[in-house]
Design a protein that fits this description.
Blueprint (H helix, E strand, L loop, with lengths): L1 H32 L15 E4 L5 E5 L14 H11 L11 H14 L9 H9 L7 H17 L2 H11 L9 H9 L8 H8 L14 H17 L5 H8 L17 H15 L9 E4 L3 H21 L23 E13 L2 E9 L5 E4 L19 E6 L5 E4 L5 E7 L6 E5 L24 H10 L7 E4 L24 E4 H6 L3 H11 L1 H10 L22 H12 L10 E5 L5 E4 L26 H17 L14 E6 L5 E7 L4 E7 L12 H16 L14 E6 L15 E6 L22 H6 L3
Parallel strand pairs: 1-3
Antiparallel strand pairs: 1-2, 3-13, 4-5, 4-7, 5-6, 7-8, 9-10, 9-17, 11-12, 13-14, 15-16, 16-17, 18-19
Helix pairs in contact: 2-8, 2-9, 4-5, 4-6, 8-9, 9-10, 12-19, 13-15, 13-16, 13-18
Length: about 775
């Protein structure tokens, strides 16, 4: 017996030594494999990309994980207590590991053969979430224990809590308590009630099982358990517990609501940031501040919607019935049009004729009234609408409701700061979710007559003047390789005889620009177009260029007109003002090259300035001509704005497939375009002045509201002369049919219609009065 005991003792000693040696080597092996806990000093949370306007309004967020890191000081004490009660009630006492809890879990395993979840402290969860994988192995559990002890040695309890509360998964793509508060309640942490705090604290155990959105009953059960634990730990009173546990769940899935709608631009930003940073773009918490002005962006959206609805209503109601195969509540909102169910049709008879009005309900159960005034555009088709029909409606600026339909036509609008090219507003279509095609940057369309200022700029540089006469008469052009000759016409189908360049651009005479281009040579106009930023492949080397037969995007056209607005400089459009890291460090700041009309020729060579591409004299003359387009020509509709400093050019292509207006003041340049994506004709009389100009007007009505008018300053090298508009030559000041015209000093007409009086003699008008008479 003694011998057996002796051998047993030896066996035990050997076993203990073996276990000790094994444990030693295992410990050292695991220790060598442990990640460095000091890495948590510089933890990088996965935070979505956020995009803002220049005035710091949220436009969009991109990223799989929703997270808003907070400092522990920003977390309410009672919310911390809720997590302590739910997850680790001895957090402040243990050294990172709850050995009693681990022992209980170990005994459970020995007795039942089943692993029992438990024994994991908040500190151990931090190690698992930051430093280890989620694999369930004994080795990983040992590493977890060792790391927890090291973390407790390295960090304060508050720091450990902060790491935990920012990292934990809370369901519905929310990570961390601040994101959970926003996702489930649309609140900040300080706005949460006790019941809501307990609900959030109950989520980490099983975010799907105890989710208040997908499993409300189990979520309330878990919340009440947390509240009871808080009561047992004296964190709340019995009254607090009873009141909070009786609360119904108020959780409702919230989405991050953009403060302004600029989805086409947001996608431009997303693509650019991804190009720069790859997948890191969506997890690094970059904050991108764009050049967009919030007020102007909203105005641009409304202006585009207004113009497309106006076009759509001119072409009638399409008798469209919304399919009942899709449940009413699942029908999408498209642009500013909402689905509505007609509940009552009221027929009205009056001396003025028959009319109707509707009562309809929206998807949120609201009842709305639609008066005849907002229905009559549909004409007789409106009388076919019956109770029970599903229609589309929109709310007008006066807050009344109108019958509407989703426009089939599309549009684009972009506004730039002409001084530096900053994009102030951009909308690439009626509804981004219906069609993500960005017509501002991707749609290559013929610019039509909007290209003519390039032709006239070339002409002025070649020595022509605003008074130069070109014969507006029929012209036949042979097209090599084409079966038929080209016989171009004016839009009016009429010919006007000798016409000045000023009159030609004011009234958009096609024949004049063609004859002018033929006289100068196409290659000269092509060279000018290249200076204005066009690519060679966009510019046809034929006389059709005079009518804008190349292609351009609305953004390119805005850039062209920015040159006239800023004094003759080619600025480069840009849309990212700066990029900040999640910590607020500026990692990129835009440094655009700016226009400097007051700089001398030596200063203009400074690389911080945009290149000058036309002289101050040519720029002045073009501004003078383009202001006449608004005051006397194809864009007189803009006179409703009551300003004298508006300038621009309409554009209409063959068969009215494109309608444009490119216009500006010294502070804002904007291009509006309307057309069909499949290049279908817009219809008879749907010119740039009819279809696109109203969009521009609606925008500028707000954009120019608080800006004063800018007088056109006459640069050195420009003189005024009194001429006969019939001949383009100087005339006597007594000639009642004479007008004042601007010329480059070395291109003043040298001959006279009448020499009775020196034409350069003062006529009694002041310089300012004489100049104003032109505009």
């Amino acid at each position: 017996m003694a011998k057996i005991l002796k051998w047993f003792a030896v066996f035990c000693v050997v076993m203990v030594l073996g276990v000790a040696v094994f444990g030693y080597f295992l410990y050292n092996k695991l220790l060598a494999e442990l990640p460095d806990v000091k890495a948590l000093h510089n933890v990088q949370y996965q935070i979505p990309l956020s995009i803002y306007s220049k005035d710091k309004l949220l436009i969009a967020q991109f990223g799989e994980k929703k997270r808003t890191p907070v400092n522990i000081e920003e977390v309410p004490r009672q919310l911390i207590n809720a997590f302590i009660a739910a997850e680790d009630d001895s957090f402040y006492e243990h050294p990172g590991v709850d050995f009693k809890g681990l022992l209980r879990a170990g005994l459970q395993l020995v007795l039942t053969g089943k692993k029992k979840q438990g024994g994991s402290t908040i500190t151990m969860q931090v190690t698992r979430n930051f430093l280890l994988s989620n694999e369930k192995t004994y080795t990983r559990k040992l590493k977890e224990i060792m790391l927890a002890l090291k973390i407790e040695h390295e960090y304060s309890k508050n720091k450990i809590l902060e790491l935990y509360l920012n990292q934990i998964f809370m369901g519905h793509r929310a990570y961390g308590v601040a994101a959970a508060a926003q996702v489930y309640y649309g609140k900040s942490l300080t706005e949460l009630s006790l019941a809501e705090q307990a609900m959030i604290a109950g989520l980490p155990k099983a975010p799907s099982l105890y989710n208040p959105i997908t499993n409300q009953e189990r979520a309330i059960e878990r919340r009440n358990y947390v509240l009871h634990r808080m009561f047992e730990l004296n964190y709340i009173t019995q009254q607090d517990y009873e009141e909070a546990s009786q609360h119904p769940s108020t959780a409702k899935l919230q989405s991050v609501t953009p403060e302004i709608s600029a989805l086409y631009l947001a996608e431009m930003v997303r693509q650019k940031i991804f190009e720069l940073y790859g997948e890191q773009a969506y997890t690094s918490g970059f904050k991108v501040y764009t050049t967009i002005n919030g007020t102007l962006q909203t105005t641009a959206n409304n202006a585009l919607s207004y113009a497309l609805h106006a076009y759509d209503e001119r072409h009638g109601y399409r008798h469209s019935r919304i399919s009942k195969s899709i449940p009413f509540n699942e029908l999408p909102v498209i642009g500013d049009t909402l689905p509505a169910a007609v509940r009552r049709v009221q027929n009205n008879s009056a001396a003025a004729g028959r009319s109707i009005s509707f009562t309809a309900s929206l998807q949120d159960k609201r009842l709305i009234e639609i008066p005849w005034e907002n229905i009559k555009w549909a004409d007789s088709a409106a009388f076919g609408i019956r109770s029970g029909n599903i229609i589309r409606v929109r709310q007008l600026p006066n807050n009344t409701w109108a019958l509407t339909q989703v426009p089939e036509v599309e549009g684009a609008f972009v506004s730039l700061d002409p001084a530096n090219g900053a994009i102030l507003a951009l909308t690439g279509g009626f509804d981004f979710f219906r069609n993500k095609y960005n017509r501002v940057t991707q749609s290559k369309r013929q610019p039509g007559s909007g290209f003519k200022p390039i032709i006239y700029t070339t002409a002025l540089e070649q020595g022509y003047t605003p008074a130069s006469l070109i014969n507006d008469a029929p012209i036949v052009i042979d097209n090599p390789g084409q079966e038929n000759e080209w016989r171009p016409e004016n839009y009016s189908k009429k010919f006007y005889g000798p016409t000045s360049i000023r009159s030609a651009i004011t009234h958009s005479r096609n024949i004049i620009s063609i004859r002018l281009l033929k006289e100068m040579g196409v290659e000269k106009a092509v060279a000018t177009a290249l200076r204005f930023g066009f690519a060679k492949e966009q510019i046809p080397n034929t006389l059709s260029l005079a009518l804008g037969s190349g292609d351009a995007t609305p953004l390119q056209m805005a850039r062209v007109y920015a040159t006239f607005a800023n004094g003759g400089f080619l600025v480069k459009p840009y849309f990212i003002e700066r990029i900040e890291s999640n910590e607020g460090e500026i990692i990129y700041q835009a440094k655009p090259k700016i226009a400097c009309p007051t700089c001398d020729s030596a200063q203009e060579l400074d690389r911080s300035y945009a290149p000058r591409i036309i002289t101050p004299q040519i720029c002045f003359l073009m501004n003078s001509l383009l202001r006449d387009v608004v005051q006397h020509g194809t864009a007189t509709g803009a006179k409703i704005l009551g300003r004298q400093d508006l300038a621009g050019k309409t554009g209409t292509t063959n068969e009215q497939r494109d309608a444009w207006f490119n216009g500006y003041t010294s502070s804002n340049v904007a291009t509006a375009w309307v057309g069909f994506d499949d290049f279908s004709p817009l219809g008879n009389a749907e010119t740039g002045g009819v279809a696109a100009l109203p969009m521009w007007i609606e925008f500028m009505r707000v954009a120019l509201k608080d800006s004063s008018e800018t007088a056109l300053k006459v640069p050195e090298g420009i003189v005024r002369a009194f001429i006969s508009p019939e001949t383009g030559l100087l005339t006597a000041s007594a000639n009642k049919g004479g007008i004042w015209e601007f010329f480059q000093a070395d291109h003043v007409p040298a001959s006279y219609t009448s020499s009775a009086v020196d034409p350069l003699t003062d006529t009694g008008q002041s310089d300012e009065e004489a100049t104003e008479s032109l505009f």
